[in-house]
């Protein structure tokens, strides 16, 4: 079985998280990802949040699997020549530097197209064209400017960011999709094109149900929000919804046995309309099945809080897994709140390759998240991240055809 993206060469000018997420995905699917890093320095994340002195951080290793590392400074004379050759040889250039950085290296899009008209040039930036297009952006800025933070958290608290890296990794995923789409289009057109994804746009795309609610507000209160049942008026913008489900089936996070000491002794519980009778029987409220105040979903919308209070009295009598085991056979959707520790130790995730143990020559064994997308006929494995410049000579010789003297001269100039 061959890998799906075998034969595709990626010139990877990414750093930190958003760009590396994108190129790691392409590498998992078999693309040859050549990561270009500044000589002697490398991707800044190699040295950030280090847990072991002088060893590439988990931040770096977990975002740069299956890649080859080349050190190269395109701002030097021989560096520019090598970079030009890399553009000639590769199919896709991916970068997420601050706006204009690649232009300042001497390689604006027009020049890249001249060198290789088939080149696909993909970028992540914080914002698209507009008032903020020149700004540098990190994860939480994107969460705040993309609408996620204003709609996350509790009604009586400040906006909240989420631990899921929807700004960085989310935009990296969007970009990977754009690249594969452009590669597909190149099959017919023979030409490359620019692919851009702004982090603000990526976050807004993931928050689209909240823009749905913004427009629904013009036609009355959002009845599935628990604030409706609590008699709290809606303002003119989509409010923070706590743990409300965000869909048509009310849900909430409920305490389970041990919540006083275990911060993750909770379960997410959904009062799926189709199994309302099962829920009533399970929690010891069979009378709610026929009660006109509770029988139909619309009857319950003004009582979401007291209903979940009653369900919580029941969930607090057992642990989160017992709740799940009792609900599942009755088709009641629910999910235990799993900690990172529990996920790291979960055998089924190891078996599917979603959690993978990797061996690294300097740090030893560590865990990472493998490819969450599984293709039936195209395997994807996880190989350790490269050391800084580990493949410089190999790539200059085998991909670009440079000889030892040319490599020595480039090294002498500080270009590699
Ligand atoms: N050789 C020589 N110089 C190199 C180089 C190399 N191989 N690789 C990078 N550089 C230089 C660039 O040319 C640039 O220099 P100039 O500013 O003088 O042109 C500089 O290093 C990189 O600059 P940067 O501004 O991108 O880096 P930063 O640490 O100041 O900012 C970040 C980081 C992430 C805020 C910024 O890159 C950014 O906004 N990126 C776009 C949005 C994004 O992806 N954010 C996600 C961050 S987390 O995933």
Structural account:
The protein is α/β, with parallel strands linked by helices and 416 residues long. 35% of the residues lie in helices and 13% in strands. The protein has 18 helices and eleven strands. It has helices at 18-28, 58-61, 77-89, 101-104, 109-115, 139-145, 168-189, 199-206, 208-216, 226-229, 276-282, 297-300, 304-315, 320-327, 340-345, 347-351, 392-398, 404-412; strands at 9-13, 32-37, 67-71, 92-95, 120-125, 194-198, 251-255, 266-270, 334-336, 355-360, 364-369. Strands 3-2-1-4-5-6 form a six-stranded parallel beta sheet, sandwiched between helices. The chain has a three-stranded antiparallel beta sheet with strand order 7-8-9, with helices on one face. Helix 6 crosses helix 8. The radius of gyration is 26 Å and the shape is elongated. The chain starts with 8 loop residues before the first strand and ends with a helix. The model has no long low-confidence stretch (mean pLDDT 97). It binds oxidized coenzyme A (CAO). Oxidized coenzyme A binds at residues 16-19, 36-38, 72-73, 75, 96-98, 101, 104-105, 124-126, 136-139, 168. Oxidized coenzyme A binds next to helix 1, strand 2, helix 4 and strand 5.
């Amino acid at each position: 079985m061959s890998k799906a993206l075998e034969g595709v060469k990626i010139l990877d000018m990414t750093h930190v998280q958003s760009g590396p997420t994108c190129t790691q995905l392409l590498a998992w699917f078999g693309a040859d990802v050549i990561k270009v890093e500044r000589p002697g320095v490398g991707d800044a994340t190699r040295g950030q949040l280090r847990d072991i002195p002088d060893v590439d951080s988990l931040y770096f290793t977990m975002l740069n699997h299956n890649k080859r590392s080349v050190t190269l400074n395109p701002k030097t004379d021989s560096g520019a020549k090598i970079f030009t050759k890399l553009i000639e040889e590769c199919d896709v250039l991916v970068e997420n530097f601050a706006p204009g950085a690649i232009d300042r290296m001497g390689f604006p899009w027009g020049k890249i197209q001249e060198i290789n008209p088939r080149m696909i040039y993909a970028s992540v930036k914080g914002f698209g064209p507009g008032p903020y297009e020149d700004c540098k952006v990190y994860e939480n800025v994107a969460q705040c400017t993309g609408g996620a933070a204003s709609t996350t958290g509790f009604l009586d608290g400040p906006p909240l960011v989420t631990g899921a890296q929807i700004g960085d990794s989310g935009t990296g995923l969007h970009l990977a999709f754009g690249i594969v789409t452009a590669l597909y289009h190149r099959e017919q057109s023979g030409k490359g094109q620019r692919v851009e994804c702004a982090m603000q746009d990526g976050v807004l795309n993931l928050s689209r149900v909240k823009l749905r609610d913004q427009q629904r507000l013009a036609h009355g209160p959002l009845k599935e929000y628990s604030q409706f049942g609590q008699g709290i008026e809606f303002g003119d913008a989509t409010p923070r919804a706590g743990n409300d489900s965000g869909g048509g089936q009310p849900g909430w996070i409920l305490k389970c046995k041990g919540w006083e000491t275990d911060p993750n002794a909770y379960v997410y519980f959904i009062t799926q309309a189709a199994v309302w009778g099962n829920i009533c029987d399970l929690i010891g409220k069979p009378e709610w099945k026929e009660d006109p105040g509770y029988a139909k979903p619309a009857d319950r919308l003004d009582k979401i809080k007291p209903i979940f209070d009653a369900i919580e009295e029941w969930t607090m009598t057992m642990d989160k897994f017992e709740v799940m085991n009792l609900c599942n056979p009755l088709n009641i959707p629910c999910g235990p709140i799993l900690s990172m520790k529990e996920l790291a130790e979960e055998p089924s995730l190891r078996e599917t390759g979603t959690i993978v143990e990797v061996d690294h020559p300097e740090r030893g064994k560590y865990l990472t998240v493998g490819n969450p997308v599984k293709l039936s006929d195209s395997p994807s494995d996880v190989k350790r991240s490269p050391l800084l410049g580990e493949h410089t000579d190999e790539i200059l010789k085998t991909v670009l055809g440079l000889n030892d003297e040319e490599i020595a001269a480039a090294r002498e100039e500080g270009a590699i």
